[in-house]
Design brief:
With about 425 residues, the chain is α/β, with parallel strands linked by helices. The strands form six sheets. Strands 17, 18, 19, 20 and 21 form a five-stranded mixed sheet that branches. A four-stranded mixed sheet has the order 22-23-1-24. The chain has a four-stranded mixed sheet with strand order 2-14-16-15. The two termini are about 15 Å apart. Bound molecules: uridine-diphosphate-N-acetylglucosamine and phosphoenolpyruvate (PEP). The site of phosphoenolpyruvate has 10 residues, from helix 12. Its EC number is 2.5.1.7.
Length: about 425
């Protein structure tokens, strides 16, 4: 078993170039199935979820090749099947996009239930509602479901809550439907806009992405093209937070600062200095931070995916902070692990109450999901002694090369294998 070893580090300094967005990439890769010609995608990160998509691509005939220069060449012209293996579908979250992307061409898609990070409840009722309104029939089985539609027809769809996944999926299904679709109460996330921009470049007619009302006029044909995925605002945010853990100065390059408004405002509020240019952000910190309250929300609110690294950062802020999770009220698996390091945090209902400034001590901890992994990595930087993080497969779902990047900033982080260390285990039990 591999684990990440983190040892208390001094202030971090340096520059990191931010990879393409995981959540956008997963949508664009599936969306490529809608095209009738080859598509080139630039900036797709080499993460675990992408490798699963590659296997799905092999199964269904979607040709995916990475060029020596890094871009992905996708050829959807020879897709021969719309059956997505249940095991592969449940190996990551965004497999549901294959439904929206394949339904118009094939009339029937079979797919397993989505996996991804486990926050107790991640329903897909809004995806199903949208597909049904567009004219599809959905039948559920034990570990898969079938979506069928002889002809998708445009519809007015009101989402009962703001959901980025269902907004993107409905957009994918509507792009080749007959007539006009209107999405109300749509998610405004940059990943929704990125998917719409990509589809429009292929010839789709989508207006309003980035607002809560999206209009889609169906088209019978989509061409090919070249498109660059947006940078990962969530990874960029986590690196800026790393600068605050012990003081230091970190620059993130290849970012779109406008995507990070709520995160940047909160970093300033707790006492970090930021220098922002068109494509980079530098965070400076003396290590002295003020306590605060955050409440997660859908974009442009404070991202739930930044809640965990921000919680680690607040362990350094003098006083009492409160983190309230409104998107996934039970997304607090990382708190139990932080407590193993000695953190003074209590969860009550959908809030975590943090008393900052309590010294941490290294221990074995488990990353239950991708952002919990980031949180534990940051916490390990301030803990005395050695922190060992298992569950690194979760971290690999989001990060291309987390360990190298943290090392390049001066963090004492390394990948270890348990069999090498077995004889030294007793001191950590
Ligand atoms: C692959 C991907 O892009 N994952 C992101 C996506 O997940 P995902 O697309 O799964 O999350 P959604 O935006 O759909 O979820 C937002 C909220 O809507 C609820 N909901 C969603 C769909 C539905 O059918 N019914 C329903 O009730 C969810 O429980 C949640 O409370 O957005 C989340 C919220 O920003 C992020 O944490 C994930 O990183
Ligand atoms: C929740 C996340 O991912 P997914 O939706 O892919 O599980 C995340 O990236 O934090």
């Amino acid at each position: 078993m591999d684990y990440i070893q983190v040892q208390g580090s001094g202030p971090l300094h340096g520059t990191v170039s931010i990879q393409g967005s995981k959540n956008s990439s997963l949508a664009l890769l599936a969306a490529s199935c809608l095209a009738d010609a080859t598509v080139t995608l630039e900036g797709i990160p080499d993460i675990y979820d992408f490798r699963v998509i590659r296997q799905i691509g092999k199964d269904i005939g979607l040709q995916i090749d990475r060029m020596p220069t890094g871009e992905m060449l996708l050829d959807p012209r020879y897709i021969h099947s719309a059956v997505i293996d249940p095991g592969k579908a449940s190996a990551y979250r965004a497999s549901y996009y294959f439904v929206g992307a394949l339904l118009a061409k094939f009339g029937k898609v079979t797919v397993g239930f989505p996996g991804g990070d486990d926050f107790v409840s991640r329903p897909i009722d809004q995806h199903i509602k949208a597909l049904r309104l567009l004219g599809a029939e959905v039948t559920f089985f034990n570990d898969y479901y079938i979506v069928e539609a002889k002809q998708l027809r445009g519809a007015d769809i009101y989402f009962d809550m703001i959901t980025s996944g269902a907004t993107i999926n409905a957009m994918l299904a509507a792009v080749r439907a007959e007539g006009r679709t209107r999405l109300y109460n749509a998610a405004m996330d940059p990943e929704v806009v990125d998917t719409a921009n990509f589809l429009n470049q292929l010839g789709a007619k989508i207006v309003g992405a980035g607002t809560d009302h999206i209009r889609i006029d169906g088209v019978p044909f989509l061409g090919g093209g070249t498109y660059t995925v947006i940078p990962d605002r969530l990874i960029a945010g986590a690196f800026l937070m790393a600068a605050g853990m012990k003081g230091g100065s970190i620059t993130v390059n290849n970012v779109i600062p406008e995507h990070m408004g709520s995160c940047l405002a909160k970093l300033r509020e707790i006492g970090m200095d930021l220098e922002i240019t068109d494509q980079s952000i530098t965070a400076h910190s003396t290590g002295k931070l003020r306590a605060t309250r955050i409440r997660t929300g859908m974009y442009p609110g404070f991202a739930t995916d930044l809640q965990q690294p921000f919680t680690a950062l607040l362990l350094q802020a003098q006083g009492k902070s409160i983190v309230t999770e409104r998107v996934y009220p039970k997304r607090f698996n990382h708190i139990q692990q932080l407590k193993r390091l000695g953190a003074d945090v209590e969860v009550r209902k959908e809030s975590a109450f943090i008393r900052g400034g309590t010294p941490l001590k290294g221990n074995w901890v488990h990353a239950t999901d991708v952002r919990a992994g980031t949180c534990l990595l940051l916490a390990g930087l301030i803990a005395e002694g050695v922190t060992r993080i298992t569950g690194i497969e979760h971290i690999e779902r989001g990060y291309e090369n987390a360990i190298q990047l943290f090392r390049s900033l001066g963090a004492n982080v390394s990948l270890q294998s348990l069999h090498v260390e077995a004889e030294n285990m007793s001191q950590f039990q």
